[in-house]
Amino acid sequence: MKRTRIIYIVIVSVVCLLASCEKVIDLKLDTSSSAIVIQGNVFDHPGPYAVKISKTVDFTDANTFPPVTDAKVSISDNVGNSELLTQSEAGTYLTSKLRGVPGRTYTLKVEIQGKTYTGSSTMPAAVGIDTVYFRKNIFDEGNQTVLEFRDPIDVDNYYRVLEFVNDTLRPGFYIGNDKLYQGQEIVFTISSTSINSNDPLKTGAKIRLQLECIDKNVFEYFRTSRGNNGQAASPANPVSNLSEGVLGYFNACSVREASITVP
Amino acid sequence: MFISVDGHKFTVSSAAWRTYRYFAHEMMLMQLYFNGAGMYRSKLYFFLIFLFLLQPVLAQQHFTISGYVRDAKTGEDIIGANVTIKELPGKGASTNTYGYYSITLPSGHYQLSTQYIGYSPQIQQIDLTQSQKVDFQLVEQVKELSEVVVSSQRKNENITKLEMGVQKLDTKDLKNIPVLFGEKDVLKTIQLLPGIKSAGEGSSGFNVRGGATDQNLILLDEATVYNASHLMGFFSVFNSDAIKDISVYKGNEPAEYGGRLSSVLDIKMNDGNDKKFGVSGGIGLISSRLTVEGPIVKDKGSFIISARRTYADLFLKLSQDTTLNNASLYFYDFNAKANYRIDNKTRIFLSGYFGKDVLKLNNNFGINWGNSTATMRLNHLFSDRLFSNTSLIFSNYNYKINIDNTIEMNIISRIQDFCLKQDFQLFSGTNSTLKFGINSAVHNIIPGIITASSSVDLKSLSNKHAWENALYITHQYSFSNKFSVEYGARLSSFSLLGPGKFYTYDLDGNTIDTATYKRNEYIKTYVYIEPRATFNYILNPQSSVKAAYARNVQNLHLLSNTTSANPTDLWIPSSNNVKPEIADQVSLGYYHNFLENKYEFFSEIYFKSLQNQIDYKNGAELNFNENVESQLLYGKGRAYGLEMFLKKKYGKLNGWISYTLSRTERKFEQINNGNYYPARQDRTHDVSIVGIYDLNKRWTLSATWVYNTGNAVTYPTGKYQIDGKTMFYYSNRNANRMPAYHRLDLGATWIVKKTKEFESSWTFSIYNAYSHENAYMITFRNNELDPTRTEAVQTTLFKLIPSFSYNFKF
Lengths: 263, 810
Prior knowledge:
The structure holds 2 protein chains of 2 kinds.
Chain A: H1 3-17, E1 21-25, E2 36-42, E3 50-55, E4 71-77, E5 82-84, E6 86-87, E7 92-94, E8 105-112, E9 115-122, E10 129-136, E11 143-150, E12 158-165, E13 168-169, E14 174-177, E15 185-190, E16 206-214, H2 216-223, E17 246-252, E18 254-261
Parallel strand pairs in A: 2-17
Antiparallel strand pairs in A: 2-3, 3-7, 4-5, 4-8, 6-7, 8-9, 10-11, 11-15, 12-13, 12-14, 12-16, 16-18
Chain B: E1 2-5, E2 8-11, H1 14-33, H2 39-54, E3 62-71, E4 82-85, E5 92-94, E6 100-106, E7 108-115, E8 122-128, E9 132-133, E10 136-138, H3 157-160, E11 166-169, H4 171-176, H5 186-190, E12 196-198, E13 206-208, E14 216-220, E15 223-224, E16 229-230, E17 235-236, E18 243-249, E19 263-269, E20 278-284, E21 287-297, E22 301-310, H6 312-316, H7 322-325, E23 328-341, E24 346-361, E25 365-383, E26 386-405, E27 407-427, E28 432-451, E29 464-478, E30 483-497, E31 500-505, E32 511-517, E33 522-540, E34 543-554, E35 556-559, E36 570-573, E37 581-594, E38 599-616, E39 632-648, E40 653-667, E41 677-678, E42 685-694, E43 699-708, E44 712-713, E45 718-722, E46 725-729, E47 736-737, E48 741-754, E49 759-767, E50 777-782, E51 790-796, E52 801-809
Parallel strand pairs in B: 3-9, 3-10, 14-19
Antiparallel strand pairs in B: 1-2, 3-6, 4-5, 4-7, 7-8, 11-18, 12-13, 14-15, 16-17, 18-19, 20-21, 20-52, 21-22, 22-23, 23-24, 24-25, 25-26, 26-27, 27-28, 28-29, 29-30, 30-33, 31-32, 33-34, 34-37, 35-36, 37-38, 38-39, 39-40, 40-41, 40-42, 42-43, 43-48, 44-47, 45-46, 48-49, 49-52, 50-51
Helix pairs in contact in B: 1-2
């Protein structure tokens, strides 16, 4: 379901054929004042649910992102429930009582140093995973993990799949929608090994897949984060469902899981 | 007005006649007063006065010399050949696109001389007592090895010619300039001229004076070519073997051209040798080509067929990788043309082009796209002063992407044109030519539809229909030997037609209106007048000053937000949401020749103002989106610059240096807080140096060096993490620059055998001879060895690439 990405992969592989090369270069990049990054979730399984708040750093800094510890975070739903979150680790705020229910709309409110940021998300109904299996990779050596599930007809569905290998989340946004597949059995492939990957899945590795049913705005966030690494012609920050000036997303989604071990 | 005196017929100018009548009337009045006496004497006096007035008017009888200028060996019409008159320096004519010229002169004796670069001049003595046909057959000039070329042969038409902002490329230059993979490429060669910049390494899209890549009108024998590149932009669709003439107008094109803002690239193909059958071709590392031409009826009609195919995929089959050795990667081009002189006033031409690119991987993924055009043209001489051309043109560009990864998905897009053009040229007098005509085109566009099955009836998919018309008139007039002007206007209209459902969006992209239209119902019409004017003032035979103004309107827009020209870009017509793009350009140039026309120099400055430019909302979904117009933003732009060009035309070493200093900016309310920011194609300095050296009769060496400062890009100003993935934070758009680009190409041509019957040669080339790693793309990622750090990675497309090909002709 990543047609443009497939086209991109093909173009890049054709290009790589023709005596091209990559090299790391030293670029003098501008810096800007730090921006706030908020990542919040509400699931349909029992909590606690977490909201992580941090700040951006300069490109040349190490990848440690300073947490925001002085935020006031609250989540409310559209049936009158509301909860103020408490900070557990630095920058991570947890719920205690709130329970996610499909169909409800959740609103996140974050107050930092006098400024308020909000975002809302409606939790879609869950979709269960039918099967999980391995398949040979089309473009490269190695295997791909494949999920199959049935798309509910008459509803616009948006999906996100997370892959945990030996309980570590593999970074990567795998999303899809049902535009062409209304009501059909969807075969969702995860490119576990990319063209230039150097750690293919080893025998015995435990893979856990989570299928999230997300709302349209959260889908748009992940869709517009493609090309964020500079591949797009005019890279920009993803379109977020949070207020202007803040990076990240707020995702109320239903989740189903399945596991498989690498043969 | 004729009177008869002693049996000789004289033409009397109306001025003289009026003067005569005035005096006659005065005389009559005087007679009434001085009754009788002076009557006969006054009649004599006034007759003498009349004869006196008649004198200067005696030589006013005019006749027309007209005809065709052709290549003596092949019969090809020569476009833009200069016909000059020894007795009237500064007066003359230039052959039109079909090799036809017409000059009207007073009766007398003249020495006509015709010249064109690469041919020996030809002289004919004319006794002009009646209108006559004078054809010229020019003979190719033997290569001059010494520096001394007869001065009188050196031309200064760059000084005298009216056109401004137009550059003609000599097809001989094409043959000697080395380019990528040794393939001669028109589009890459024009990028060596000032003001014309490549849109990116390996891409054959180009930007002219800061315009976008869709703002160039590319014509192949009058048919529009929508995507002039093969293989994602690495090669152009033009088979250089069959090209006769290449002209580039950088925004100041005359009124007979229209539809794109920034340039017109007018390519004319050869008509075919109408005297002798011939075959030529070449076998190269990446592709091979073959051309067959010959007479249909000797001296009356000819045909030419050209074909080219690449076989890059044969190299892929050698790969160990199973993905690669199942892949198909090729393109082919096919050109066919025939013409026939029905009588000495009428000539008919039929031409066609068909080209396709195929890229297929494993039956899971395939993309193919192609252009096809078909043209029928009819030339007719209504009189020796009125030349007419009628053209019927069909043009089609389409692409299809097929993905078959358990679920099959096809993406189809197509643009199809049916066009009628009627052009007239009226050669009225020595110093005046009038060109006028109409164009009418119907566009059918399928804007990127997704379907499940691969075989689908294209007619059943929802098409957008548009009807475009234009009426133009241009007058070329020489006020004196020094000052001439070409002015005119183009009245253009564009209508979007039904059937279908059409949405109107507000500036945020929300639908505010939906309307359903019936077949051929008018949804929106735009009418504009595009004035054009060029002035040429000759300071002396070595230098001139030119000034020009033009307005251009564009109604077909290419939507693309990827890095390079990509066949999945989308063409959309102007509509109830999308207004036509408008450009107004003024330019001023100084032209000067040195050392008796051995060196040509010009310097031009321009300023262009752009309206209704299109950009995309953040995260716009352009591909396969029926509501693509809701994703667009509208703004304005401006571009300005200085171009300098120095060319050595004659001698063992020749070539040119071109330099452009420029800026192109855009202003959109929603981008960069509504401030002017550099467009992606903005590059401050651009230098090209081309040198061609005739070592001896067999060897020609050439070198090209290009340098440009980087394009505007957006780099991150920070970073953060989302779900374990490192994300980059962006602030202002296009606030940074790519690293500078430079490259040296070397080439050599070795003529093995050259006889009247057979010619063969080898061409060697090295692309990027010192293997400079030019940045094609810069991306950002975690450091592969140390994931706690991030780094910038530069991808280079091409390093040193040698190539060779064997060429033959018989």
